[in-house]
Amino acid sequence: MVVVLLAGVAWRVGRYAARRPLWGDEGFVAVNLLDRDFADMLRPPLEHGQVVSIGFLWSELAVTKVLGLSEWALHLLPMLSGLAAFLLTWRLAAEALDRRTALLGMAVLAAAYYPVRHGVEVKPYAGDMAAAVALMYLAWRLKQRPGSVGLWVALTALGAAAVWLSLPAAFVVGGVAIFLGWHSLATRRPRQFVPLAIFAVVATASFAWMYQVFAGPTARANLWYWAIPTWKESFPPLDRPWLIPWWLVRVHAGNMMAYPVGGNHLGSTATLLVVIAGSASLWRRRRRDLVILLLSPLLPALAAAAMQKYPYGTSARVMLFMAPSFCLLAGAGLMAIFRRFVPIPARTTAVRIAVAALVIWALGGLASDIIWPYKRASNLSARQTTQAIAAKFSPDDQVLIANAKDYGQFLPHFEGPDCAPIWFYMHTFSRAAVRWTVPPEQVRPVAGDTWVVYYETPRSSEPGGMEQRQGQLQLYLRQLTERLGQPSLEEYELLRPYKHRGPGRLSVYRFPPAREPPGR
Question: What is the pTM assigned to this prediction?
Answer without folding.
Answer: 0.93
